Amino acid sequence: MRYIWVIFLSVVSLYAQAKDEQTKEAIVKIYTVSKALNYQQPWSSSMRQSTGSGAIIECRSGEKYILTNAHVVANQTFLEVQRYGERKRFIATVHAVSHQADLALLKVADAQFFGDVTPLKFGELPHVEQKIVVYGYPMGGNTLSATIGVVSRIEHHRYAHSGESFLAIQVDAAVNPGNSGGPALSDGKIVGVVMQVITSSQNIGYLVPVSMVKHFIEDMQDGRYDGFPELGIVTQRLENPALKAYYGLDEASTGKLVADIVYNSPLKGLVKEGDIITHIDGHKIANDGTVEFRHHEYTDFGYYVDMHQMGERVRLSLIREGKPMEIEAKLTKIADDVLLVKTTQYDQMPSYFIEGGYIFSPLSRNLVLSTKINQMQLSQYAREWPTKEKKEIAVLLKVLASDISRGNTDFRMWPIEKVNGETYVDFKDFYQKVKRSKEKYLVFEDADGIKLVIDRAEAQAKQKEILKKYNIEFDKSIDFRE
Prior knowledge:
flat; Pdz3 Domain; about 20% helix; alpha+beta; 6-stranded antiparallel β-barrel; Thrombin, subunit H
């Protein structure tokens, strides 16, 4: 009997080793060459090399892909991938990317790369204290690394790559640069993708949860990425008793107060300022704006918006002037559709144009993050909503010193409200107003009434000379040249 038990343990041990080896064969190292964009000089960029991690998965179509982070391949110009236990690198391309959720799928045309590897499967959203193993290729060595930890908490967290807030898994497993995009496994199945780490902490890392990964892959089934929907409203907590009493709510009533609605919100015409949203898809919203997504586990009520695909409908229960009501809204917008300053952008060169040595660009989060000049005012725009009349802000980046710009070179990172007394809708409209002007002078004005004046004919006459002096090849970005 003792011999049978020893043999049984040996068989189990061999099976576990084989299973572990099978898992490792699906882990990939990613070599990325990318453009480092310069938002202060939007016509230029430099080259950067980095590495990341990924995992081989199989989609519903039966095709194999490499799952990784979007930030591992953002602004990429050339990608190579290498499987665990192999020395040969293969060329890869980006099949799909969600910069919102910091996820990407890579494709390898050479079928030899995948060989007879068994793709990793997806598990379910893990529980707190559940054991996980993180695989990847972090700094400190070249071979595969595996670190063990547990799930510490699950709640909404800001994704550093996009700046948007989604459900995230916090883990205590050691996560370092190079781990990005690597899978976190529990019981041999993917429960998350390594995303980011708090550098000032000890072993606090974050994963993109498997629920977000499944949403992304499901979204891509039709070959097009639509994104995670956004309601386009500003809400306020109802934790203050006086505020609840003001809106006629009793102690038992909970929810969030609608403070503002974006002009193009999918809830426009359905929800009013002063409404109280009490439930979303039948789930009760607490006064702190959270919902119970599992027993005794709470996160932001946007969780039930994030779980929808674009084009689906969301149900909201409201209290309006003391009366309960139900509405349904079709989800048609993502965050960039309802923001005055878009979320962080990738995979595209910045837009700009130059007029007589004056460099103009749209205000973006990339631009705000790239400078400390006038950052307070620019950051204020990033907190504002767009209107039908104003969907984007144009900025004078800087002025190239010349004989026609004397006295104006101190204008830097200067937001513009009007051109020749007229407002504009977006940067394209701003560009057209400048280029189509027949006035002798171009007059730019900010919100405080400060004006900058350019002699239009003189600027056009000196344009080529100024560009040559500063070694600038094009006077506008490729989107305007096209």
